[in-house]
User: What shape does this take?
Amino acid sequence: MHCKELESVLETEGLGQLPKDARLHLATCGVCQGLLADLNSIASVAKSIPAEVSPPERIWISLRAQLEAEGLIKEPVEAAEHSSWWESFTALFRPRAVATASAGVLVLAIAAFVARTEHTPKPGAAKHQPVAESARPVPTQVTASVSSQPAPVASLPASKGTTPSKIKELAPSPSESASFTLNQAELDVPNMQLAGNSQVDLALRQNLRTLNAFIAECELHLKQNPQDELAREYLNTAYQQKADLLAAMMESGRGDN
Amino acid sequence: MVGNPADAEDLMQEAFLQLFRKIGTFRGESAFSTWLHRMTVNVVLMRLRKKSLPTDSLEETLEPDAENSGPKRDVGAPDLRLSGAVDRVNLERSIEKLPPGYRTVFVLHDVQGYEHNEIADIMGCSVGNSKSQLHKARTRLRDLLQEEIRQQAREERKAAKSPTGSLD
Assistant: This one.
């Protein structure tokens, strides 16, 4: 092998393991030994040159400005903070919204049922029965548990000595009767522990407050618009819900008195 | 590759701008780093062409003109050994004098540690071409370093002959 051939081998094979012929030539040629040594030295020193050099900070700032100017990137910080705030707020609100929506659907369904029940009274059923009693027996329990309160609606006409036919004229309207009954039953609630878990207790009281607010709104609307049958149906349904809620609260809780 | 920090910073920004503009064209056929490197090399070569360096085509970039290849070296003739004379400063100075094509392949392989198949992907050439360019870059550097040593030796002799610094 000649020197030129060795160089050709170095060009194609690199500085690694050389073929036998090349090694034999190297053993006898000082020039090629020098060449190989120098090339190895260059490659070795090159490894000490930093492969990456961190550019100054101004380069990144300038780059960012150019990217924003071209619309290739957008400022995400404020949007992320805004969305995270909104996300957390809606997450807090979402369960109540779902519950409120569910309650609204339930109100509509029961209102429709009550409306049908009112328009098609069952034979033998007392017309002066409170709306709540016509749907569920629970309000009876509610009224029964309030022993120190004024007589329930059902006995009111009797105490006044009026005939059933006049009950409807003299007795308060079904809505007012239900409201009175329920308000009486609610008098003991503030002093009661409604559930073994304080969080559940708080939730029940919050639900009751929400329902009371809805009832108050319906009653006010009806006073202004006594002919609004739909509002009346909503109100009756709300009374029903409140009766159910009070019954549940009293069943699960115990008095502190 | 460009030989000075100011140009390097400008080209770095340009390369990243191209990256953001063309990120949608990345198809994943190669590694992302390879794709980015290829884009960067193209950005640099485009700039070098605009500067009217002797690189009118990629082939010329990869195969510099032999007449401009620097000091001639006779194969087989005694050479000045570089052993012990190669340091990082001298080498970096010599790298800056390399033609762009040689410089690119040398930096990618010996400085950054890319393999020939990766360099071929980045440069858009063959593996054999990459190996050939690397060898030629190394031998060119050897010649430049030897010239550097000779120049330093001449200056030292001059300084030794006239301590006052005057020329003879």
Q: What stands out?
A: The domain at 5-161 of chain B is CATH 1.20.140 (Butyryl-CoA Dehydrogenase, subunit A; domain 3).
